[in-house]
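Listing S7. Sequence submitted for prediction.
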Amino acid sequence: MKGATRQASSPVKLPFAPAVPADVLDAIAAIDRVSRVRVMAVASDATAISTREKSMRTSVEGTFSGVVVIDASYFS
């Protein structure tokens, strides 16, 4: 995101994920030691398929349409 040329108020739109305000992503990317911020969409069609493994789970799982992945490094 560093050096991005889009307007700070324009949202990042994905086909399956909700819009994420670009200024939020830019603020995260500006944090020291953050090297990359990505917004990924979940393919709901593929993840909604019933499987044996899913039927064995005892917890109630929520659904979401996207995920923000933050790559950062920490050196002690």
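Caption to Listing S7: primary sequence and predicted structure tokens for the chain studied. Residues 1-9 have pLDDT under 50 and may be disordered. The radius of gyration is 16 Å.
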